[in-house]
Amino acid sequence: MLSNYTALMHRPPTKHCRNCGSAVVYRIPDDGDTKQRAVCPACHTVHYENPLNVVGTIPVLGERVLLCKRNIEPRLGKWTLPAGFMELQETVAQGAARETLEEAGAQFEMGDFFSLVNIAHVGQVHMFFRARLLSDQFDPGYETLEARLFTEDDIPWNEIAFRTVSETLKRYFADRRTGHFSIHVFDIT
Amino acid sequence: MLSNYTALMHRPPTKHCRNCGSAVVYRIPDDGDTKQRAVCPACHTVHYENPLNVVGTIPVLGERVLLCKRNIEPRLGKWTLPAGFMELQETVAQGAARETLEEAGAQFEMGDFFSLVNIAHVGQVHMFFRARLLSDQFDPGYETLEARLFTEDDIPWNEIAFRTVSETLKRYFADRRTGHFSIHVFDIT
Hints:
The structure is a homodimer of 189-residue chains.
Chain A: H1 5-9, E1 25-27, E2 37-39, E3 46-47, E4 52-61, E5 64-70, E6 79-80, E7 83-85, H2 92-104, E8 108-119, E9 124-133, E10 144-150, H3 163-178, E11 184-187
Parallel strand pairs in A: 4-9, 8-11
Antiparallel strand pairs in A: 1-2, 2-3, 4-5, 4-7, 5-6, 5-10, 8-9
C-alpha cells in the first residue's frame, strides 16, 4: 500500500503521548540514549521513530517486466513496480508478495532477493525480490490504473514514479545481460 | 542501542492520538486500507505500526570474531554481535557502523552486506554486514560488559543472546570455510 507514502515521508512530529494523551516534550531520555525523543512528562513513555521498509517485486514474464500505473498520489499516472509498506507479522518476502497481489492482481512465484535501497533522507529502506509471472492476466487493485508488461526497450524511463524503481530496473536489466543475478545494496541521496 | 529491545518487542498498543491526544479507536480506515489501525475520531490521524530494523556487524580480526557481553536486559551477561535499532536519517550500513562504535568502541572498516533475518512474530528485520577490525583494542559503551575476540572453536554457542546472532555466525563460518561469502536471507520463526 503506497497510498500513505506522502504522509509517511513527511510524518508530522508526535505532539501527544500515545499512552496517556499528555503533551510530550522533546529531550534526550535518561536511559543512556543520545538522541532527542518525544518523552511524556506524565507517564514517561519514550516515543521512538524509526525507518520504514517498503517491499516489492520485479515481476517478469519471459523478456517482459510488469509495471503498474499509479492511480493514487503521489506520482499519479506514473509507472512503478508493485511495492508498499511492510506490515507487522510478515517477512520481507511475504510483504513483497502481498503488495504484488494487491497492486497488480498477478499470479507469480517469488524469486530471490534482488535489491536493498537506502533513502536515508526520508527514513526508508526499499527492498525488491525477483518474481516469475505465471500468467499475463492481471487484476489490479484500486491503487493501480493499469498493469502492463514492458520489454526493456519499451520501459517508459521518463514516466517512472520513483528512483528506487528506475535504479532497481537498470540493475535488473544489466544483470540479465550478464546472465547472472546478484544482490544490489545502494543508496539514493 | 538494544536497551529498549524488550519494550519494542512488546510495544503496547496506541491508546491516544499522537497529534491531538484524543482516545483512539481501532478500525479499518476509510482510504481503501484492509487492516485495523488506531484511528483518531477527533482529527482523523491514522497511526501505523510497522516492522523495525535491527542493524549490526560481524567484526573480524584475522581468524577471530568480536562479540560483546551484554550489560543490559534482556539477556544480560549473554554474548552478541554489536547491533541495535536503525535510526532515521541513516542507511542500513551507517546504522550498523554506529552500533559497532557505540557497543564495542571498535576501529574497523565496513565490509559487504551479509545477512537479512526476518523475525516476523516480533515485527523485526535484522541485518548484518561483515566488518574488518583494524585493532584488537576496544572501548565498549555502557551497554557492553566486555568486548572480546573469539576463534570459531571458542564461540560460546550456549551463551549467545539472540538466535539472529547465532544463525548469522553459523552462516559466516560456513561461508568462510568455502572461501566465498554470499548474502543470506532467512527467517526465524
